[in-house]
Write a structure and sequence with these properties.
Helix content: 25-40%
Strand order of the largest sheet: 3-4-5-6-7-8-9
Structural class: alpha/beta
Bound molecules: zinc ion
CATH topology of the largest domain: TIM Barrel
Radius of gyration: 20 Å
């Protein structure tokens, strides 16, 4: 489900991504072609069409003025700092976000279960980060700074490494599967270890895929997760099954520009299953904050309409 902060940041425009043969449903009589990809709507109409080869997406009362290639992210909801695995301070990331012309940034350090010093030392660290955010917000009032967490799914039953009763402390909640974490049970530990080596064994891979998918779906249904981070990265999942549940729970699936494992087919499958997306940098250094280019390219390659991506404008 969305936090009020996210809801407040709904994109202002919707755009046409059509570059192919005109194929509109509904009552509008419009044409859009390779030569003329820009359409201006004066009426309040909803015309959606999704199909292979034809990609036209119009929205309610949309003023269609830009080509999809000019779209940029206006918020980066996934960045790390020195409090976990990042190299910059909170202020460094905020300054980088301002330089990247973002309207919002979330500081989302790793939960405590990540091994080898990747995660925060304990949950109290987030209160320190909150104080730094408050100070930064006073200093930079024109950008919205959110306190978030990238929580770990640490058990097959969906348990996160941040208890449900502590999640109200955050403005935005991200969660995902990571290989190198303190798991909550021997079985989930074995599954995570299996993910490390199981990708080379088709039989094990299928079994692991089911268990990974079960864990993600269980987390989505138990916790108010805003964004599922880098789905499928190093940990195989059933994209369609996860996307269907994410659509029901209002959880955005991440298009990460840091991890280059994403295929357009993954986005297509998730979109058709009802998923909506955010593009995020997963920045581990200030220079990466606001990086969205790879995400917009992937979205375009998969013909994902801009209205399905929360943080594009
Ligand atoms: Zn991650
Ligand atoms: Zn991350």
């Amino acid at each position: 489900m969305l936090t009020s902060a996210l809801r407040h940041l709904k994109p202002q425009f919707l755009y046409c991504t059509g570059y192919h043969t005109p194929c509109f449903h509904g009552t509008l009589d419009l044409t859009c072609s390779v030569d003329n990809p820009l359409i201006e709507l004066s009426q309040h109409q909803t015309v959606y069409h999704f199909g292979s080869g034809n990609s036209y997406y119009l929205g309610d009362g949309a003023l269609l003025k830009k080509e999809v290639t000019t779209l940029r992210i206006f918020a980066d909801y996934h960045t790390h700092t020195v409090h976990s695995h990042g190299r910059g301070t909170v202020e460094d990331n905020v300054k980088a976000a301002i330089s990247a012309n973002l309207r919002a940034i979330a500081i989302t350090d790793h939960g405590p279960a990540n091994l080898f010093g990747v995660g925060v030392k304990n949950l109290d660290v987030f209160q320190v980060i909150r104080q730094e955010i408050i100070a930064c917000q006073r200093k930079f009032p024109h950008i919205q700074i959110l306190l978030g967490v990238e929580a770990n799914i640490i058990d097959l039953d969906g348990t996160l490494d941040v208890p449900l009763e502590r999640l109200h402390e955050f403005d935005i909640i991200l969660a995902g599967l990571h290989l190198l974490v303190h798991t909550n049970s021997l079985l989930s530990g074995m599954v995570m270890a299996g993910n490390l080596i199981g990708r080379y064994c088709p039989v094990a891979r299928n079994r692991l895929r089911k268990l990974n998918t079960q864990a993600v779906i269980a987390a989505l249904t138990q916790y108010p997760i805003d964004i599922l981070t880098h789905p499928g990265l190093n940990v195989d999942i059933d994209t369609r099954a996860v996307a269907e549940v994410a659509a029901q729970t209002g959880t955005y699936m991440e298009i990460s520009t840091r991890h280059h494992n994403i295929q357009p087919s993954y986005l297509e499958t998730a979109f058709v299953a009802g998923a909506r997306f955010v593009i995020s940098s997963d920045a581990h250094s200030p220079g990466e904050v606001g990086e969205g280019e790879l995400g917009t390219q992937l979205a375009k390659a998969a013909a994902i309409p801009p209205w399905a991506i929360h943080n594009l404008s």
